[in-house]
Amino acid sequence: MIKIWGRTDSSNVQKVLWCCAELGLEFERIDWGGKFGGNKDEAYLAMNPNGLVPTLKDGDFVLWESNSIMRYLNMKYGNGRLLPAEPEGMASANRWMDWQLSTFNAAIVPLFWALVRTPEEKRDSQSIQASLIKTAKAWQIVENHLAKSRYLGGEEFSLGDIPLGVWAYRWFNLPVERPPQPGIVNWYERLTGRKPYQTHIMIPLS
Ligand SMILES: N[C@@H](CCC(=O)N[C@@H](CS)C(=O)NCC(=O)O)C(=O)O
Predict the structure, then answer these.
(1) Which of 12, 70, 101, 109 has most ligand 1 atoms within 8 Å of CB, for mutation?
(2) What are the start-end ranges of the H helices in 102-204?
(3) Ligand 1 nearest atom to the CA of residue 34, by list position
(4) Which of 54, 101, 147, 188 suits a disulfide with 13, CB 3.0-4.6 Å?
(5) Which residue, among 147, 186, 187, has the nearest Cα to 164 in the 3D structure?
């Protein structure tokens, strides 16, 4: 049985849960990290030296890094079907996954934390505004791509949609003024039609 450590409101855990559901995989999930703690325990650090969630255990195999976990599950249990087979499509999907972790997160995470995980009286409106501008600019890069393509990895849904798809739900549910980005709205609406997205991503922000 696949075992996943991680709280359900973590964006990186959500990616893995969504991916499992797309692949029809059964798993056991343990509430971990955040208010549940446990992630600095010695035994946990032996599995994941970062002390972060998610961590996956499949038999004797332990893996951390959400995007790598998704690629592993897709390869091992999905026959690779959640990534385009041709090198260009595969590379494009992988690129959006990498870009979310390396670039996009730096813009949206401070905005999310300020508006969802910081008490109102402690919020700094100037830095919220600065994060909002940065985030809208980052989304514009996605918007320009979606003007030419139904999904991020091509015409079909793929792993390439999952990391940014998790954040799209958060973006559309934050109390902010969003610039008109119709390509993203249409893509997001397509994602909301997927059962795994409804189950694991469309939950109250916390
Ligand atoms: N690059 C890592 C980042 C993991 C990460 O930052 N996880 C956050 C939650 S989204 C975490 O563990 N925070 C500490 C906590 O939940 O206690 C991944 O993609 O898995």
Answers:
(1) 12
(2) 105-116, 125-146, 162-173, 182-192, 195-200
(3) 17
(4) 54
(5) 187
Q: Note the pLDDT tens digit of each residue in 86-141.
A: 999 999 999 999 999 999 999 999 999 999 999 999 999 999 999 999 999 999 99
DSSP 180: P
Q: Is 10 in the pocket of ligand 1 (CB under 6 A)?
A: yes
Ligand 1: centre distance to CA 54 (Å): 7
Task: Give backbone dihedrals phi and psi of 187, rounded to 5 degrees, phi first.
Answer: -65, -45
**Chain segment 42-73, per-residue pLDDT in tens:** 999 999 999 999 999 999 999 999 999 999 99
> Closest Cα partner for 56 from 23, 84, 81?
23
Q: At what angle do helices 66-77 and 162-173 cross, to 10 degrees?
A: 130
